[in-house]
Design a protein that fits this description.
The complex is a heterodimer. Chain A is an alpha+beta fold. Chain A contains three helices and six strands; from the N terminus they run ββαααββββ. The chains are: A alpha+beta, B alpha+beta.
C-alpha cells in the first residue's frame, strides 16, 4: 500500500519512502552517453596525426617526439614505442587507454611505431 | 486538519520541491553538456575535413595538399596557397577561427569569441611541423 490512512491523519509507510527515494534517484541520474565517445575519436585522430607526420619525417629523437606529443596532448600521460625505445610522457592519467600503431619502411625492414594516450 | 496531516502534507510538498529542483538541475546540466558536445563535434569534424580534403574552389572544406604526380591528397600536409584563399565570410555556421602555427609563424583567419572549443591537428607545412587550430563557438 502506498499511503496508510487512519482517522488521525496519514503517514508514509516504509514502502512509500523507499518508492519516493528510488524515484528521486532515477530522476537525478545524469545522462552523459556521447561525450566520452567523441573524446576518444578526437584523441585517436590526434594520435594518427602524430604517427603520420613522424613517419613522413622519420626523425625519432626522444626529445622531438616528446615535444610533438605535448603539442597535441598538453596534459595527458602517454607512451611512445619506436625503434625499440619506450618513451614515457608524464601527465594526467585518465581511465581510457587509447593505443594507435603505424608501420613504416626503413633500412629494408617494416618497422612499427605506436602511441598510447591515457584520456 | 490535525498536526499530523499538516506535517505529512508539508513533507510531501518539500519532497516534490526537492525532486523538481533536482530534476531542473539535471536538465540544465545535460542541456549544457549537449550544447558543448555539439560545438565540440563541429570543431572536431571541421578540423578533420580541413586536413583530409583538398578543395581549391571551397578551401574552407579542405586545405590538404593535392599531389598531382600521385594523383592523391596528402592527408595532414597543408597547402599554404589554399589556406591563404580561405575567407571568413565563407565559413560554415559556428566556425569562427582557423589558425595555423608553424615555425615561428601564425596565420589566423577569423576571430574566436567566448564559449568556444578549439580542435587541434598536427600537420606538415612546407615540410615543417605545425599545428592547425579550428575554433567553433556558440
Amino acid at each position: 500500500m502506498f499511503l496508510y490512512a487512519n482517522e488521525k491523519g496519514f503517514s508514509f509507510t516504509l514502502e512509500a519512502l523507499i518508492s519516493f527515494s528510488v524515484l528521486i534517484l532515477i530522476l537525478t541520474v545524469p545522462v552523459q552517453k556521447e561525450k566520452s565517445d567523441l573524446e576518444k575519436i578526437y584523441s585517436i585522430q590526434k594520435e594518427h596525426d602524430l604517427i603520420k607526420v613522424w613517419i613522413k619525417e622519420k626523425n625519432f629523437e626522444e626529445k622531438i617526439l616528446k615535444e610533438d606529443f605535448r603539442k597535441m596532448f598538453p596534459f595527458q600521460k602517454g607512451k611512445i614505442e619506436v625503434e625499440g625505445k619506450k618513451i614515457e610522457i608524464k601527465g594526467k592519467e585518465g581511465k581510457n587507454e587509447l593505443n594507435v600503431s603505424g608501420f613504416y619502411y626503413k633500412n629494408g625492414k617494416i618497422n612499427e611505431i605506436s602511441v598510447k594516450v591515457f584520456v | 486538519m490535525s498536526i499530523d496531516v499538516l506535517t505529512a502534507f508539508l513533507a510531501v510538498l518539500l519532497m516534490f520541491f526537492l525532486m523538481l529542483a533536482a530534476l531542473e538541475e539535471t536538465i540544465n546540466r545535460n542541456k549544457e553538456i549537449e550544447e558543448f558536445y555539439y560545438i565540440k563535434s563541429k570543431a572536431v569534424f571541421f578540423a578533420d575535413s580541413l586536413v583530409k580534403n583538398s578543395n581549391s574552389e571551397e578551401p574552407e572544406k579542405g586545405i590538404a595538399f593535392y599531389n598531382t604526380e600521385k594523383k592523391s591528397v596528402e592527408e595532414n600536409v597543408i597547402d599554404l596557397s589554399l589556406m591563404e584563399k580561405i575567407e571568413e565570410k565563407n565559413f560554415p555556421k559556428y566556425l569562427k577561427e582557423i589558425r595555423l602555427e608553424f615555425e615561428e609563424k601564425k596565420i589566423i583567419i577569423g576571430k574566436k569569441q567566448a564559449n568556444c572549443f578549439e580542435a587541434r591537428r598536427f600537420v606538415l607545412v612546407k615540410e615543417k611541423k605545425g599545428v592547425l587550430f579550428v575554433s567553433v563557438c556558440k
